[in-house]
Hints:
CATH topology of the largest domain: Alpha-Beta Plaits
Strand content: 25-35%
CATH superfamily of the largest domain: Nucleotide cyclase, GGDEF domain
Largest sheet: 8 strands, mixed
Oligomer: single chain
Radius of gyration: 28 Å
Number of helices: 11
Number of domains: 2
Structural class: alpha+beta
CATH class of the largest domain: Alpha Beta
Order of helices and strands: HHEEEHEHEEHHEHHEEHEEHEHEE
Distance between the termini: 64 Å
Number of strands: 14
Helix content: 25-40%
Amino acid sequence: MDPSTPTAIPAGAHALFGPPGRWSLEPVATWLMTQGRHVTEPRAFLGALVEQLDAANARVDRIRISSSTLHPQLAALGVSWSRGEGVQLWSGEHGVQLTDAFRGSPMEHLQQHHRLLHQSVSEQPLNDEHPIWQDLRAAGMRDYVALPMWMGSGRQNAMTVATRNPAGFDDDDIARFTALANLLAPLVELMVGRRTTLGLLETFVGKRIGERILQGQVKRGDGETISAAFWYSDLRGFTALSETLPTDQLLKLLNDYFEYCAAAAASRGGEILQFIGDAILIVFEITEPQRSRQVCAAALDAAIDAFDSIAVVNNRRRRSRQPVIEFGLGLHLGTVTHANVGAPDRLAFNVIGPAVNMTARIQSLTKELQIPLLMSSDFAQQVTNPVLSVGHHAMRGIGHSQELFRLRPE
């Protein structure tokens, strides 16, 4: 944070809750410190805040709150409201600061100068004006203020307000909006912090486990028994590829494989539990016994989709003379314990039980049998796709041979 930037309410704040005949921030501030701080969903919060500003006669027709965030895909998150359009969430991907939408914008001004920007919206377009002024003019706005919002961490975020009132905003309005930004900062920081935490948890440990962690299942031994269809897939020839491919090409191949498998599974209710080197363990939970057939069908459809999607990727890779992506995939149905295990100071949620081992062993046989997709008898009995038995096979660590199935060739 720029040490010269004031974080307290600036001079002129004697008019914060007045003067008579003008709007007062006092009821808005009272709401924020009582009821408002309990509204943790961003859209609901901004909608309720607008109601308070309207009741105070603040003459605001557009308000936008934006915050930078720590997220693998997103650089910024925000929520905006416009009269007649309602509340919307928005996000900005990494690299947004290099785009024309950011260059020359009020957000760039705040980032560079760390002070508010107050500008009327001209009735006629100006030469080389930023597109935001065109958008504001088209929406009937006549005045606009962008204010820095300082977080406790020292990070600068932003709040912008606009009005259709021809009189625009005066100095007293600016003082109140500056105070409002100060009042909002800690509440916004809490909301963004929770959103960031959840986003990071979902990215690194998955949505299901992330929710369990936030619900308090953090002690070693916390766990539950789940029934599920399991997917275990593994790349072919990864060791050789890792020894011959440049690092950037190896990572691109690995990430393409992960991405298309994950997308196929996620669209059908599957969730990645673990990346194990170049292998993927995915679970399709069966929350009700009567849904076994439906879940297994979804898992099989996801597997077929993954192979089809990667076949398209491989066509592109062949044209560019890159090694293709080949993998084997095993499907099984069973019950496991999903538990928090590990050392006292280093824990991880894991799935424990014979069903996981069985799925991994099925996958290992895809290489030996030269059949990329195999499924257990228990799984095959649940699906309506035509299947063929490939016989009984012994598996390491499994007490007796198991009959495996493949899809019937068309």
